[in-house]
Write a structure and sequence with these properties.
Structural class: alpha+beta
Order of helices and strands: HEHEEEEEEHE
Shape: globular
Radius of gyration: 15 Å
Low-confidence stretches: none
Strand content: 25-35%
Mean pLDDT: 95
Number of helices: 3
Helix content: 25-40%
Number of strands: 8
Distance between the termini: 29 Å
Amino acid sequence: MVTDPIADFLTRVRNAQMAGHRIVEIPASNLKKRITEILYDQGYILKYKFEEDSKQGVIKIALKYDAQTKQPAIRSLERVSRPGLRQYSKPTDFKRVMNGLGIAIVSTSKGVMTDKQAKSANVGGEVLCYIC
């Protein structure tokens, strides 16, 4: 039983990148699907596919690497809010991730979005993770 599914998601991606894998499989949920879509939209992963199985479904993510240096596109994945200590932020108080080069994924009342999208929509929420 996983107590923090978002931390599990981030750890699976981080471990797959460190091992040099091309594809990582993650148990699906609606929140994880939305985080995957954000990673794709922001250019951190090559592609993704949602597959249904007899249980909850699987997300297959094709990881992105630099062609010359073979370095992963995602340099760091950091969990911010966790079950023991939730972190909420107003739209004016979002912390800049890597001087604006990274993104924060925020769960708001209008859905899961990046910190920039939440700031433009003027909604705050729970800061799930930082990605750069």
